[in-house]
Amino acid sequence: MTYFPEEVVEHIFDFLATHRDRNTVSTVCKTWYRVERLSRRSVFVGNCYAVHPERVVARFPGLRSLTVKGKPHFADFNLIPHDWGGFSLPWIETAARGCPGLEELRLKRMVVSDESLELLARSFPNFKVLVLISCEGFSTDGLAAIATYCRVLRELDLQENEVEDRGPQWLSCFPDSCTSLVSLNFACLKGEVNAGSLERLVARCPNLRTLRLSRAVSIDTLSKILARAPHLVDLGTGSFTIDHRAEAYHKVMNNFIKCKSLRSLSGFWDAAPRCLPAVYPICGNLTGLNLSYAPAIQCADLIKLIHRCSKLQRLWILDCIGDKGLAVVANTCKELQELRVFPSDFYGGGIAAVTEEGLVAVSSGCPKLSSLLYFCNQMTNAALITVAKNCPHFTRFRLCILDPKKPDPVTNQPLDEGFGAIVQSCKDLRRLSLSGLLTDRVFLYIGMYAERLEMLSIAFAGDSDKGMVYVLNGCKNLRKLEIRDSPFGDAALLEDVGKYETMRSLWMSSCDVTLGGCKTLAAKMPGLNVEVINERDESDEMEESPSDLGRVEKMYVYRTVAGPRNDAPDFVWTL
Amino acid sequence: MEVSVSDFDNLKATELRLGLPGIDAPEKPAPVSPRGSKRALLKANEECWPGTSKSLEADTSNQEAQPMAKAQVIGWPPIRSYRKNSFKARKAEVEAAGLFVKVSMDGAPYLRKIDLKVYKGYKELREALDNMFRCFSTGELSGMEGCNGSEYAITYEDKDGDWMLVGDVPWEMFISSCKRLRIMRRSEATGMPSSP
Q1: Average pLDDT of B54-58?
Q2: For A181, A237, A414, B127, which has the most beta carbons within 10 A of its beta carbon?
C-alpha cells in the first residue's frame, strides 16, 4: 500500500466509515498520518478536556464537521455543579481561526453562550448544521444570530437544552432568502412563537423534512404548516390542544391525511385523549413515536393509538401505559427496535405503573428489540432471565428500578442472576445501566461476559472493592464507567491504574475513595486528570485543611493530552 | 441517671449512621470537604440511603432490610433535569390554577363554584354539595351508588364534552377531567346510560 500515490491512499481512506478506523490508519506510518489528517473531514471529541482545540484544528485543517462533548453523563442528574466547565467558546474561537470551512458543529452537555453562537454564525460562511444537546447558557438572542448570519443553514436542532427566552423575534431573523432548511427543531423552547414568521419560513423551505415545534405553537398554526409542508418526515406537534368539537380538529385531521411521508411523531405537550384520533390516518406509516411528554394521555387512549402503529421501530412512552399497554405493544409492534418507558411519577409510591410483566411481554413479542430504557417499580430475576433469552440482540440495556436497592420481590434475592443472564446472552451489549439490589456477584458476571461493553452505570450496588475490580479486569472494551453510592474504595481504584488510559473517563461519587487514593492515582498516572469536586457551603467560616484519609464526595478521572485544565472553578481540584 | 448496659445499647441503636439500621457498617471517615463534619452530617441526612435521620426510633433487633423510606435522593431517579423540570412546571401550573368548577342544580336560581382540589374523595364532595344545595332540595343528594331513594343524580361534563355520572372513575382521574358539575333531577337522569 505504501507504493500507491497519495491520492489513491486518500481515496481508499474515504471508504473508512468510522472515526475509530480512521484514527487507526493514521498510526500506521508518517505518510498515512499525513494523508489521513489532510483529508479528514469529520472529527469526534468525546471529552472536550482530553485535547486542546488548537491541536485538533492544527492537525485537521480541512475539518468540516466537529462534534464535542463536555460534562460527564451524570451531569444530566444534577450531580455535577453548575459551573463545572465544558465551555464551547474556546472550541468555536479556535475553529474560527483555524478552519473557516467548518460546516457542522454538534455539541453535547456544554456551556454555550450567546457570544459563542454569534461568533459561530459570523465566522463560517458555509455553516450548515448546528446540533445542541443538553446544553445551557444561551438565549433566543443567540439563536437570532444563527438565523441572521448562517446563509446556507440546513439544520438547527435543539434537543433538551435550557434556553433563556428573550422573545419570539429570533424566528423572524431568518431572512427571506433563507430557503435551505431541511431540519428545524425548537421543541425545547419555552417562550412565545411568532406564528406568522414560522408559517412563512416553512412555506419558503421546500426541502424541510424535520420540524419539531415547541409547546407555544397552537394547533391552528400546526394545521396551516401541515398544509404547506405535506412532505414532512419528522414532526413535533407543538401543544396539540384542540377542542374536539371545533372545526380545527377536522382541518388538522385532513391535513395529517395528506402527509404521506410522515414517519415520526413527537410533542403532544398538552394533548387531551380525544384529540389523538386526528393522527390515526398516518399511524400505519409511523416508525417513530414519542409520547413521553404527554402525561394527559392515559393507558386506554395510548392503546387505541398503538394498535394502529404496526410499523413502529422506536417508541418513547410514559409508564402510565402500564403492563397492559405494553402487552399491546408486544402484539402490534413487531418491528420494534428501541423502547423507552419513562416514569410519570418520579418519586415512586404512585399508581403501580409498569413492572417486570410489561418488559417480559415486549421481549417476547418484539424479537428485534435492541435498545431499552425502562423505569419500573420492580423487577425479578426470572423476568430478566426470560428477557435475556427472548432478546439476545440488546446493544443498550438500561433498567432503572425506582426504589434503590430493591430486591426481587418474589424471592427477596438480589438481581445478580437476572443481570448476569442479560450480559451472558447479549453478546453485543455496549451499554448497561444497573439498578435494584446487587452484590459483587453481578460484577463478576459482567467482567466475565460483557466483552463488548463500552459504558457501564452503577448506582447503590456491590458489597466490596472486588465488584469494581471484576469490571476493570474483565471488560476489555470499557470506555466509560460511572459509579455512585457504592462501597468501592482506594483498593479498587488503584488496582489497575493503567486501565484508565484505555478508557475515556471514570466517575465516582458517594463511594469510599479517599483524597489520598486520588492523589496516589494522580501521581502514578500523569496522563490522567484526576478531578476532585468539592462543593462549598457559604455558611462555613473555617476551611479545614482536608485530610488524605477523608472520603472524596465526587471524583472525575479522564485521560488527556491537554494536561490540567485552566478553566476549572474553585471547587474543582485537579490533583 | 445511671447509664446501664441496656441504655448504652439503645444509645448505639439511635446513632446516626450511613447504612441500614441493624447493620454494623465499619466506621467510615467523614467525607472530605471544606465544610468539615457539619457538612458530613448534613449530607448524611440528605443524600445517604436510606433516610438515616429518620431512624432515631429504629428497631435494631430487625436485622433484615427494612422497606426504603421515600426520601428524595439527589439525582435519583436518573432522569434528565430537562424532563424533570418540564413535568414540574406543568404540575405547578395545574396546582396553582386550583380546580374551580361551576355547579348547577336543576331548578336552583343560581349556580355555585367549588374547588375540587380541597376534597379528598367522592364522599366529601357529596357532603359539600349536599350542604351547598340543601336549601333547594327536599331530600338528600346522591349520585354515587345510584340509590333509588334520591331525587337527584350528580353528573359532570368531562374534557371531551360528555356528561358523565359522578363516581365511576378513580378520584384523581375525575378531578383531572371534570369541567363542571350538574345536579340533575332523577326523572331526567333515568334516560341516561350509566357510563360511556
Answers
A1: 36
A2: A237
Q: Sort out which chain B residues have CB atoms less than 8 A from A161's CB and list them.
A: 82
Question: Length of chain B, please?
Answer: 196
Residue of B127 and A464 predicted with greater confidence: A464
Map residue B90 onto helix, strand or coil.
Answer: helix
Domain ranges of chain B: 97-137+165-180
Q: Who contacts A475 (Cβ-Cβ below 8 Å, separation ≥6)?
A: A446, A447, A450, A451, A453, A456
Q: What would the grid cell of residue A76 be? A: 444530566
Chain A positions touching B31 (Cβ under 8 A) are 550-553
What is the pLDDT at residue A183?
98
* Separation of alpha carbons B7 and A250, rounded Å: 76
Checking if the pLDDT of A110 tops 70, the result is yes
Phi, psi torsion values for A252, nearest 5 degrees = -65, -35
User: How does B136-152 read in b/e, with b if 16+ C-beta sit within 10 Å?
Assistant: ebeeebbbbeeeeebbb
Peptide bond into A281 cis (omega under 30): no
Q: How far apart are CA A398 and CA A412, in angstroms?
A: 22
In this predicted model, what pLDDT tens digit does every residue of A174-196 receive, in sequence order? 999 999 999 999 999 999 999 99
B73 contact residues in A (CB cutoff 8 A): 404, 485
Of the residues B76, B83, B160, the best mutation for testing chain A's interface (the one with the most A CB atoms within 10 Å of its CB) is B76
Of chain A, the end-to-end C-alpha distance in Å amounts to: 45
Phi first, then psi: give them for residue B180, nearest 5 degrees. Answer: -160, 160
- B49:A404 CB<8 A: yes
d(CA A311, CA A229): 23
Contacts of B30 in chain A (CB under 8 A): 550-551
CA distance A217 to A219: 7
Cα A159–chain centre separation? 9
Nearest to A349 among B70, B77, B85 (CB): B70
| Residue B26 DSSP label | P
Amino acid identity for residue A497 in this structure: V
Band of the pLDDT at A575, cuts 50, 70, 90?
A: confident
- For residue range A353-380, what is the model confidence (pLDDT) as tens digits? 899 999 999 999 999 999 999 999 999 9
Q: How many whole angstroms separate alpha carbon A109 and alpha carbon A159? A: 11
Is A31 inside any structural domain?
yes
Q: How many residues does chain A have?
A: 575
- Reported ipTM: the value is 0.86
Partner residue opposite B73 with nearest CB, options A404, A457, A536 = A404
- Kindly calculate the radius of gyration of chain A based on its CA atoms and give it in whole angstroms: 25
Round to whole Å and give the CA distance between A178 and A148: 9
Q: What's the CATH number of domain B97-137+165-180, 3.10.20.90, 3.40.50.2300, 3.60.20.30, 3.30.460.80?
A: 3.10.20.90
- Segments forming the whole domain that contains residue A509: 496-535+547-574
pLDDT tens digit sequence for A151-173:
999 999 999 999 999 999 999 99
pLDDT in tens, A520-535: 999 999 999 999 998 7
Q: Residue A299: pLDDT band by 50, 70, 90 thresholds?
A: confident
- Stretch B51-69: mean pLDDT: 38
Q: What single letter denotes the amino acid at residue A480?
A: K
Q: CATH code at A26?
A: 1.20.1280.50
